[in-house]
Amino acid sequence: MHPVIIQFGSLAIRSYGVMLVIAFLAAFYLAKYDSKRIGLNKKNMDSIANYLLLGGLLGARVYYGLFYDPYYYFTKPWALLFIWQGGLAVHGAIIGGILSLYIFSKRNSAEFLKLADFLIPLLLLGQAIGRIGCFLNGCCYGLPTEKPWGIIFTKDSSAYYQYGFQALHPTQLYEFILSLIGFVFLWVIRKDSPFRGFIFSLYLIYYGLIRFYISLFRADSLYLWGSNIKIAYLVSLGLVLFGVVVLTRGILKAKKN
Predict the structure, then answer these.
(1) How many domains does the chain have?
(2) CB count in 10 Å sphere of residue 181
(3) Tens digit of pLDDT for each residue in 116-139?
(4) Which has more confidence, 22 or 6?
(5) Given phi > 0 = left and psi -120 to 50 = alpha, else beta, which region is 147?
């Protein structure tokens, strides 16, 4: 694990940030490659990318602040802009990204579910690459384990500060593998969607389930205020339920047609 790739005095280039940039660029250029399939031009793609980038970052920071230390971020809301200090929650990024895509669709008279089906496989790709950054950074780590694949993180990582030289579940790699599998599956079937929202609904259900499961092994989770309930459980279940609703409505609508 290498949280810092290179250091120039007080300026550090962190592996987490580099992997986030790679994730965004990989998803963006793959989207541009596939964009003609649904009639999107370069201007459309650039605009969508800006919406998603802004919405995803804003959602990730607000979600983190809301459940990590709401008093601090309520009294100092400008601290939400300090993304270099860490604190980006993937559930918040997903919610922010979905909302920003919905806003884009309404402002540009586009079909939201059509855009969501197109972009969702690439979201899973970005999430997979992003988890490599988490692994290198030593964040989003798991609970102690005696499994042979347990990982001992380096001294300059958050995992080490909490558990020292104990072997931990590499939950970052669990999610990397499962997200990559999901991406490949959705990418392969993306052209054979039986109705609008099908790919989107599969993502919501699939990611909700795997994140709920992985959260069983996560050690650095955010919690519902004043409780020992991991907020990831509730949001993951919410994603699954939302996905079931979208899937059911799509099936019923397809049967009517």
Answers:
(1) 1
(2) 14
(3) 999 999 999 999 999 999 999 888
(4) 22
(5) beta
The amino acid at residue 42 is K
How far is the C-alpha of 234 from the C-alpha of 63, rounded, in Å? 13
**Buried-state track 27-53, b at ≥16 Cβ within 10 A, e below 16:** bbebbbebbeeeebeeebbeebbebbe
CB 101 within 8 A of CB 48: yes
248 burial level (CB within 10 Å; 0-12, 13-18, 19+):
exposed
User: What is the C-alpha separation between 45 and 31, in angstroms, rounded?
Assistant: 8
Whether the model pTM is above 0.85: yes
Q: How far apart are CA 175 and CA 128, in angstroms?
A: 7
From residue 55, give the alpha-carbon distance in Å to each of 37, 119, 163, 181, 238.
Answer: 25, 14, 34, 25, 19
Cα separations in angstroms, 127 against 41, 54, 130, 165? 25, 16, 5, 28
Answer whether residue 27 shows pLDDT above 70.
Answer: yes
Q: Which residues constitute the domain of residue 126? A: 4-256
- How high is the pLDDT of residue 20? 92
